[in-house]
Design goal:
- The structure is a single chain.
- By secondary structure, this protein is mainly beta.
- It is built from 2 helices and 10 strands; from the N terminus they run E-E-E-H-H-E-E-E-E-E-E-E.
- The strands form 3 sheets. A 4-stranded antiparallel sheet has the order 4-5-10-9, with no helix packed on it. Strands 1-2-3 form a 3-stranded antiparallel sheet.
- The longest helix is centred in the first third of the chain and has 10 residues.
Length: 158
Amino acid sequence: MSNLVKAKNGSLANSNSNSLTFPSWSSWIDEVFNRELPSAFTSNFNTGMTLPKVNIRETKDAYFVDMAVPGLKKSDFQIDIDNKLLSISTEVKESNEHQEDNYARREFGYSSFKRSFTLPETVKEEEIKAEYKEGVLSIHLPKKEEAIQKPPRSIKIS
């Protein structure tokens, strides 16, 4: 005969007459997905580049997309606009050769990312500029004249 008891992690578990405790199905699933994976499983997963952090800001006459991507060169980036979709991507391939105890070992590295943003109708596509400086890619998206914020004004009543 089994009874429900509270397990160590606070969830309900089944207990039989021999005082053995069996976790419920839901607590077992929680346990599996909430624990840390051993480093043997995760050590090689993060060798490529992850998605870079992006800040998007707006001023009265432009939008700016700032992306943190240190360690790259200007030539590593591909920036395209197609049907109001701004795409920023990079693909870096590296090859290093090491000499160890009469054996040559060659290591290959590969990292890439692609981020896409839908541009608002108010952007002057033909005047978009990009700059890469100190590990930050900045894209300047000027607004069309009709979209530029006008300063507030007072209207006199006649």
